[in-house]
Amino acid sequence: MSTQSQRTPGAPLLEVRNLVVEYGSGEHAYRAVDDVSFSIPAGGSLAVVGESGSGKSTIAKALVRLLKPTSGSVVLDGTDLATLGERQLRPLRHRIQMVFQDPYGSLDPHLSARDIVAEPMRARGERSGSARRKRAGELIDQVGLPASALDRKPHEFSGGQRQRIGIARALASDPEVLVLDEATSALDVSVQAQVLEILAELRRETGLTYLVISHNLGVVRAISEQVLVLRRGQVVEQGDTEELLTRPREEYTRQLRRSALDPALMSGRKPRDVVRAIAAARAAENQAAAQAVAS
To answer: What distance in Å separates the CA atoms of residue 51 and residue 63, rounded to the nearest whole number?
Structure first.
């Protein structure tokens, strides 16, 4: 990991202030993100959840500057990325990287896993091919793939394995922040659990900071301490993950929770932690209903 500059203990590493993102201009402009603010401390994890079309992925793209915000700020360790020109931004891009939703479409099908992971190092100026290959092998091992995977191409891997390659590629840039844009939504539930465990272990080992984009509260419970709920580009509520999951204030959040924790909507084998999450949430919901009746 890169050496981070001195910052006040507890100060946010990433702070988004009054973010607005519009598509189009003038009277035809569509406001996809409307005055959204949040912060994440170094080593922390925040999940942004909401239904499709709520603006989650637009926030992700604005953070890594795949699109430029209409207004507001994206402050990474004291530097507002939203205001920088491309030349100023280029040396900072490695500090905040994205893992994409589609574990196949985001990988070049013509390259081996080794070359996919090594490419960001070459882009950052690492001229030694042997150094790139060595580091690629270390990263492939770090995400739980065997050395034999290095010479295979994306179509030779399962969806979960491809997503691990995507994570290794993001790590090759030596980031401080990973933006996980629906990084497990295309995977079977049991494979989701494996990838989430890899991400949790990486954060424990490296101190990475996560911004998790998801529509599934059951998934974010396993990886984020804080949750921001988004609807139609605006913040509905935000707070501690456990508190928000068991006692949401807004009906919209309760609807998301019911959907996320409904076993009938899950495919594949249900991991034990997901089953426990379902039981805990159901028990909390029943207890809250009983208290409401009693009062």
So the answer is: 20
- d(Cα 43, Cα 209) in Å, to the nearest integer? 4
Give the tens place of pLDDT for each residue, 240-278: 999 998 889 999 988 888 776 544 444 444 444 544 554
Q: Which amino acid is at 285?
A: E
CB 234 within 8 A of CB 48: no
Is 216:267 a contact under the CB 8 Å cutoff? no
With respect to residue 5, please indicate whether it lies within any of the assigned structural domains.
no
Confidence (pTM): 0.81
- How many domains does the structure of the chain reveal? 1
Burial of residue 251, with CB atoms counted within 10 A of its CB: 0-12 exposed, 13-18 middle, 19 or more buried? exposed
Strands 12-23 and 96-99 turn out to be: unpaired
- 207-225 in b/e form (b: 16+ CB < 10 A) is ebbbbbbbbbbbbbbbbbb
- Strand 96-99 relative to strand 79-80, pairing: unpaired
| 3-state secondary structure at position 128 | coil
Q: What is the CATH number of the domain that holds 232?
A: 3.40.50.300
